[in-house]
Amino acid sequence: MIFDEVTLRKLNQLSMVASWVRAGAIKGERRSTRRGNSVEFADYRNYAPGDDLRRLDWNVYARLERPFIKLLEEEEDLAVHILVDSSKSMDWGEAEANKYTFGRRLCAALGTIALSSGDYLTISLLSDGQITGQYGPARGQHHFLPLLTFLESQSPNGKTSLSEGLSEYAHASHRPGLVFLISDLLTAEDIIGSLLQLLSRGHEIILLHLLSPDEIQPPLAGDLRLIDSETNQAQDVSLDAGLRQLYHSRLNAWREEIRQECLKKGVRYLFVSTAHPWDEFILLDFRKAGIIK
Q: What is d(CA 277, CA 292) in angstroms, rounded to the nearest whole number?
């Protein structure tokens, strides 16, 4: 089990928040901003010639002697797409701070929220420039345990090559919806350019940028040989106070560059250290960011 029953009950009370809701194939449990023909009252507007008199509120007319039409809210499901970087670089960090473990827990929590809200959920794993695993599309809480089984059976492998994987996903015939990308972004590729392909197809994107605490504050010093976990290429370095400061400066600049580019393109960006409790990130930080309610 990726999380306990107490956390599960909390997640089942939440729902996703999108800037606009895409019409679904069936009616779900969320409220659309589009006015429809359901039984849930939304608002009033002035009567206009040609309006259906069955929607006139006669009680209000009797009190105010002015005709008003009742607007009703329509219930719609939301397409939720969760894309998880499953490359070898994600397999870094000790115990609970392991990026891949943390990322899968975020994925499981978001998937649980979507399933409990009746949303249309698809989960895909990206590595080596392709989709290496997929669960869904699925709808309904009966998919909860199969979803956990799927995530627990997956292992990180291959190189970080998000651009090709994102391009493949963008060009597939997926319903536009809310896309979560969970990754450490440790690649030289143009990630923002790849996300634009998803944006152009009507998706709304939330980028969850994960790094482990020892990537943010490396507990290293002296003469070292660093080995790339994906390519096995080695690099000799002498890590002193000056180089450590340079590393911190460039790391912060890199994160800020990504944040600013996301802001310009309309992508929501959240950075998190995997030292941060994952459930607090979902239950508190996501709420503050307006991603869930």
A: 17
Are 238 and 277 members of one domain? Answer: yes
The single residue listed with the structure tokens 């976990």 is 229
Looking at the structure, tell me whether residues 58 and 188 fall in a common domain. Answer: no
What pLDDT is attached to residue 105?
Answer: 93
Exposed / middle / buried, residue 95 (Cβ in 10 Å: 0-12, 13-18, 19+): exposed
* CATH code of the domain covering residue 131: 3.40.50.410
pLDDT digits (tens, 9 = 90+) for 89-118: 899 888 889 999 999 999 999 999 999 888
- Say whether both 159 and 63 belong to one domain: no
Q: What is the pLDDT of residue 183?
A: 95
Enumerate the β-bridge partners of residue 111.
none
91 and 63 assigned to the same domain: no
My answer on whether 133 and 164 are in the same domain is yes
What CA–CA distances, in Å, run from 232 to 89, 163, 229? 11, 21, 6
Query: Which residues in the chain land under pLDDT 70?
Result: 1-2, 20-44, 50-51, 71-76, 173, 229-230
The number of angstroms, rounded, from the C-alpha of 204 to the middle of its chain's C-alpha atoms is 9
Which CA distances in Å does 3 have to 84, 123, 278, 288? 18, 18, 10, 22
Do 101 and 124 have their domain in common? Answer: yes
pLDDT given for residue 35 in this prediction: 45
Instruction: Report pLDDT for 20.
Output: 56
Classify residue 222: in a domain, yes or no. yes
Query: What span, in angstroms and rounded, lies between the C-alpha atoms of 201 and 192?
Result: 15
Are residues 48 and 158 located together in one domain of the fold? no
Q: Show the tokens assigned to 68.
A: 């008003």
pTM: 0.79
